Amino acid sequence: MVLRLISFVLCPFAQRVVITLKEKGVDFSLEHIDLAAPPDWFAQLSPLGKVPLLEVDETLLFESSVIIDYLDQVHAPKMQPEDPLERAQHKAWIEYGSGLLLDQASVLHAKDETDYQKKLEAFQQSLSRLSDPVAERLFGQTERFLLIDVAYAPLFMRIALMAEWRPEWRELVPPLLQPWQRRLLDRPSVAQSVVGDFALRYREFFLAKGSWVMGQIKA
């Protein structure tokens, strides 16, 4: 089985796939493209015009939740609950996490302080919804590393990065979620899932998009 992952260097959804592959010790090749000027062949491959794409031999998969679910079915160790209902709950919260990633990016795309504060407040409220399932031990309080951990690691990484630059992001994660965040960020597969100059690229990307908050950060 030959695996080729097509990604954008800052894509959190592709990062999910990288983490999963590293956790399972599976060999793969990684190709980054520029989504602002994608190569001609990419339009032929991607039905949605998005990354990640995973080529499995000559078969193509898209959508990160589908890809990591497939990888979990064919490569050990298993990273989902055995109970079907609990597994379905995890999948639902993974989709919720996808929405949070989009919300977090939307905060950074805000063009002025008023819009930024409004979006940040809404994002914090949405993030706080995770406290109940974590308190109920549905996820986030086990040493076993699961797909739901994979799904949320890119989000917590981006929050931690923003917290290095902006004090309001340091209070964003509810106390109940903070141990989970620390465990995920300490995971080698998570730390190794981005390029070495990720922080610089991240700031420059949003600056180029007219981000108000990135413009307030001293280089």
UniProtKB/TrEMBL annotation:
Tagged with keyword Transferase: yes
Name used for this protein in its record: Glutathione S-transferase
Family matches, as InterPro entries: Glutathione-S-Trfase_C_sf (IPR036282), Glutathione_S-Trfase (IPR040079), Glutathione_S-Trfase_N (IPR004045), GST_Omega/HSP26 (IPR050983), Thioredoxin-like_sf (IPR036249)
Stretches assigned to the GST N-terminal domain: 1-79
Classification via SUPFAM superfamilies: GST C-terminal domain-like, Thioredoxin-like
Keywords, sorted A to Z: Transferase
One family name in Pfam for this protein: GST_N_3
Molecular function GO labels: transferase activity
Cellular component GO terms held in the UniProt record: cytoplasm
Record flagged with keyword Transferase: yes
Organism: endosymbiont of Ridgeia piscesae
